[in-house]
Write a structure and sequence with these properties.
The complex is a heterodimer.
Chain A: H1 2-61, H2 66-72, E1 76-78, E2 81-88, E3 91-103, E4 107-118, E5 121-133
Antiparallel strand pairs in A: 1-2, 2-3, 3-4, 4-5
Chain B: H1 2-5, H2 11-67, E1 73-79, E2 82-91, E3 94-103, E4 106-113, E5 125-129, E6 132-137, E7 144-150, E8 156-162
Classes of the chains: A alpha+beta, B alpha+beta.
Chain lengths: 138, 172
Amino acid sequence: MNGTRRPNSMLVELVIVILFFAISASVILQLFVAAGARSAQSTTDTAALLMAEDFAERFAASKLPADSFLEADGFAQDGDTYMRTAEAGKRTLTLAVTGENEDTGAGVLDALHLAIHDQERAVLTLPVSRYLPREDMP
Amino acid sequence: MSRRLHQEPPAHMIGELFTFALFGVFLLLSLLVVVIGVENYRGVVDASDAISQIRTPLGYMAGKLRSDAATDGVSLETREGVQTLVLSEIYEGTRYETIIYHQDGALYETYINADETMFDPDIGTRLTDVADFEIAWADEDARLLAITATADDGTTQALHIALRTGQGVNGA
């Protein structure tokens, strides 16, 4: 009688432990997935930030008109927006630029608005302005 | 004798075997969760390391080039066989140089009185680890610097910096 009771009680204990383990494991696995996703998002955001900074610096130094600069940089015009994609690790980011310019007579004031998207998620937006004196134009 | 050989195993023995088998599955699953956790943690740390190894030198260089308003000139030079970025400033007739360069998998910086001291790559202050680091002019007018940083895992990121200050006191 005692011999059959011992394995049964052990089995019940084991089942309880496994149940507890399964619940803990499911929580931990969710945390792992969330941590991985957060890490990937952080990597993408950093790459996007550097990309935006790089774009702003190159635009500031360029003497080309805004539309020529964007076309030379690989952007394709789609209505009022210039778009292109860029690789950031395993992700593909979409860069969209809208803007306007004002001819002041002595030069041109360009005001662009760069938006970077990771699929549907807006990663960042950056306003970029540049004044190009007429004597500096090509 | 022969009857005993063909006897079915006792029920409690099957129960014990099942219990031990279940315990074995439990151990295997525990190990699996630990292995997944280790892989995940390693992936997160590696990604974080790569990003930090790239962002730190690029951010430092961007900050240095933008904030150093006293800088009278920025130039790229090869000194003692090392490619260097030289930020020069003249104070009371004396020229001082901040020299930033990459050597032995790290970014270094040194500050010298250019009129009295020769550049020595071994006396620089180690700033941060970066597997590879390159600086080059991206345009003919020497107004745009292209800085490229590569992490240990091969991840490469380039950043351009447009100079707001004058350049060329050293003949850039």
